[in-house]
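Before relying on records like the one below, remember that each one covers exactly one chain. Contacts with other chains, cofactors or solvent are not represented anywhere in the record.
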Amino acid sequence: MIIETMEKEGKNIIFVYTTCSSLEEAKDIGFSAVNEKIAISADYWLVNSIYPWKGVIQEGDQYMLLIATQKSRSEELIKHIETRHSYEVPVIAIFKSIMTSQMYGFWVDNTLTNKDKYISETEAEAKNQAEGYHYSRLK
């Protein structure tokens, strides 16, 4: 039953939202947050935005960035975003998850608390081939 695989309070998983001026900036903030284990994932996509800036209505493209992490890492993630962000006044908003699947919650906990460094897909492919696994088949 689906309700049995859901856990209230989402294992304290939150989502941090910001917008970025470019694809490169969104990737930089997202990748570095995941690599430093202050986030479990970062999703980004192109959005069209309308907003006032210094008294003038602006319209333009931005990249929305949604980063998933644990509540306990939120302050560190916010500081990380602020130091890498190009905007003078970046939007940084936090959304709390109401529910997440237990498996997702376990994966987040295990991944973010594991002290091992991440390796690249190329390194994983070489390691798995040496051990008889094929990384591309696991995706």
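Strands lie at 6-8, 13-20, 41-53, 56-70, 93-96, 99-101.
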